[in-house]
Structures are given as C-alpha cells and as structure tokens.
Write the structure tokens for this entry.
Amino acid sequence: MTTRHTISHADELYSGNAFKAGYSPDGRRGIKMTHLYAHEFKSTAGVAALAANPDGLFSSMKPSLLTATGKNLISLAQGTMVSVGSTIISFDVPRNITFSSSNTATGVYLKLEGLDQYGEPMAEAIKGAGAGAWASGKRCFKSLSKIYTTAAFTTTVSIGTGARLGLPFHLQTKAGLLGVSVDGHFCSGTTGAFTVHIGASSATTMTSSGGQPDARGAIVMLSPAPDGSKRISALMVVDHSTDRAAFGPPQVSSCSNAV
C-alpha cells in the first residue's frame, strides 16, 4: 500500500544545513528544493510507449459505413489497435489522433470525445487537411468513446494515432522541458531529435474543441521513434503554485462548440 503526505503548502521549501551569505532572501539555512519531475512514457503494463499508428483505428474504412453524419462510429473501428465492436478505445499513453481520406474537403471535421490521463472528459474537432493528406489533432487522448463527423465521406477513410505523447503536467514554456532521454541517454543532435508543444495558457479558459493546443502540452519523438522497447523520459519543471499552473486549464468536454 502506498501512503502519501503533503509536507507543506509553502511556496518554497528549503532543506539541509548549508549556508551561504547572499543565497537565501532572509538568511535561512538550506538549499531550495526544486520542482523537477521525471516522467517516463510507458503503458500501465510497464512497457514503453508504442510507435504511432496512423490507421490503427480505421484502416481504409469503406464509405458505405461512414455516411451518417453525427453518428458515433466508434463501434465500427476495426484497425489493429481495437477489437471489433469496441465502445471505448484506450491507448498506452496519451496520444493525438490523425485521419485521412482521399477526397476529404478542408471543411470536414472529425469529432472526438473521450478522457484524458486523469479521467477528465475531453473533446477535439480535427479539420480535414485536403485530398489524400493526413490531418493531425493537437490534443492527447488516453481513451476515446465517440468518433463522428460533420459530413459524410465518399471514399475510404483511415483514422489512427499520431506521434504526440501527452505530458502529465502543464508545460508553460519550452524552457520548462529540461530534456528528453532515450534508454537513459539525453537526446542531442546526434543521439536523438524531438519537438516540443507547450500547453494551452493556464490563465485562460479553453473555449473551442478545435484549433487550440493540448491543455498540458506534448512532445513528438522524431528519432528514435517510439517502438515499444526504447525507454523515453522527459524531465520538466513543474509549477505547483495553483491547480492550473500544475495541470493547465480545464478540458473542453464536448464538441458542441467546435470550430
């Protein structure tokens, strides 16, 4: 059994008996405790994050099954990541969603509803990228319960997961991510590459299920890509002064206000 105890609600904590004149603002002893958090991207089973799977939910799905607009299509998912007839689709780590159709107009939206990694309802509307192009969502879902569209597709459709891995705490600036490691080695220009996406502003309320970034932020591993065996970890600074500073703004929970 795990036990937990909050030591203090103070803004700053100092520990130890070390002293240096001019270090602390009021001459106290000790060194300020940092707010660093090392997060390893792995599934609940303890294995490392898997690679992106662009057609892992719907693989070239026939248009005859996707003609009803506004209908929840999740039970029709038949990609390698799901079982036929699923009502909830869960992912190894929080991930973004991608989709493609050979004639998807840019005015067509794929709408998604599900849960984030803390069990909070979240939603996103992803705008089509054009004929044959992949459109990528910005928000990282831990599970999906609804998949529907604003228009009927007339050609085969593929839907799956992207390479964005959702962070557990709010990344306010890129400087807040101190580094990413793979198998215990920090990435550099020669040993790995990644991109960083900061979270939505904690000072505002997310008002749209489309276009805005993930509430907390994400990284995209470019090289080496996640493959289910490499251990990928992120070291980040966590601001624990308020709920929003630590976890970002509340999620948008439905697509009724989609762009």
Summary: Residues 52 and 162 are 5 Å apart (CA to CA). The chain has a mean pLDDT of 86.
